[in-house]
Predict the 3D structure of the following.
Amino acid sequence: MSMIIGTETTAKVQTQPRGKMLAYWTVTIFLAMSITLSGIGQLMRIGGNIELVTNIGYPLYITTILGTCKILGVIAIVVPRFPRLKEWAHAGLFFLMTGAALSHAFADDYGDYGFHFILPLLYASLNIASWALRPKSRKL
């Protein structure tokens, strides 16, 4: 008589600590709202966006390209699933923001108190924080 003894396995569900999840969503929502408003401003060419790009020597149509990229990047970061797309969106927003800061620096257009240089770097920092705090379901 043979007897098969089954082993019971339990899956260990790893959940993210509540504080880290709260920090992730706080940073991500603030980043998403900021970048969305910036993108809409560029698409509509309001809020000084025309002077902002022409002062550093870029053509005006760049606002349409940048605004569209910002909106699409925010959508990719906020919607569920698609972890590879999220990685690309975070990378794209990082290069967009650091590129903006460097463009203003190279054109000696720092703005009042370095605003044109500091704000894009703040957005890049928020982007890094959002990427670093993301839950496992949003990682590759």
